[in-house]
Amino acid sequence: MAPVEREINTNEKFLAHIAHDLKTPIKAQARAIELLFSGALGNLNENVQNMLINMNASNKYMQCLIDNILTDYRLNNFNFVLNKTDNDIRKTIEESVKNVEILFVSKKQRIVLNYFANSFIKNYDDIQIQRVIVNLLSNVYEYSKENSTVILNVKEEGVYLTVEIVSKISYLPKETASLNLVGAGDKIGFVNCSKIISMHNGIINGSTNSNGEYKVEVKLP
Questions:
Q1: Distance of CA 6 to CAs 13, 14, 19, 166, Å?
Q2: I want to staple 116 with a disulfide (CB 3.0 to 4.6 A). Which of 12, 144, 155, 211 is the partner?
């Protein structure tokens, strides 16, 4: 094994161990919150329940950030191979929504799914496309208004199957608002999304309009 390859493998193992160690306390906190919600330690008033919802949302977001760090390293060190198979985009989206649903509950937001395509089967890496959707939804959650509705549409556009996320935003960072790109609270997450979609020969873009509506699209060939 060449020295550079050996160094890359060593660094990846190191980061993997760090990611694993960071996830352990997050999982422990999530389990503790589940026990509290179950009433195992007594009844909870509404204020305590709301606080636990916010804590659980923070845990989910932290786990997403940890995954982004490890994915970023693999992408940048050319040690990343897609595992593409035929998948149903509806199942991919619904699994992704489950992973971030608690975030939207914490801001009293709701996600509406609409499917308009004739066929929903595409050849892609299910895990990585889930990661993209989770990251994009996490960003939308961060910038969207409380009590708002986030609409997720799936539609056919020529050779592409397009996943479109639309929401009303409360603000967008100045450095990203003028770009025809996704405004990302987590820069690593956005860069990863772009690279993953590019590896699928797809397209990712976003835009805002004067009404404060934010739209991001992921197109898979």
A1: 11, 12, 20, 44
A2: 155
Q: Is 122 or 194 the better-scoring residue by pLDDT? A: 122
Q: What pLDDT does 176 receive?
A: 45
Residue 200, C-beta contacts closer than 8 angstroms, at least 6 positions apart: 82, 84, 124, 125, 129, 220, 221
What is the residue-averaged pLDDT of the chain?
77
The 3-state secondary structure of the chain, one letter per residue: CCHHHHHHHHHHHHHHHHHHHHHHHHHHHHHHHHHHHCCCCCCCCHHHHHHHHHHHHHHHHHHHHHHHHHHHHHHHCCCCCCCCEEEEHHHHHHHHHHHHHHHHHHCCCEEEEEECCCCCEEEECHHHHHHHHHHHHHHHHHHECCCCEEEEEEEEECCEEEEEEEEEECCCCHHHHCCCCCCCCCHHHHHHHHHHHHHCCCEEEEEECCCCEEEEEEEEC
Contact residues for 150 (Cβ-Cβ < 8 A; gap 6+): 104, 109, 110, 111, 112, 137, 140, 141, 144, 165, 166, 167
Q: pLDDT at residue 198 above 50? A: yes
Closest to 109 (Cα-Cα) out of 153, 60, 145: 145
Q: Residue 122 in contact with residue 218, Cβ under 8 Å?
A: no
Q: What is the pLDDT of residue 171?
A: 58
Q: What is the pTM of this model?
A: 0.70
HSE-up of residue 201 (Cα within 13 Å, Cβ side): 7
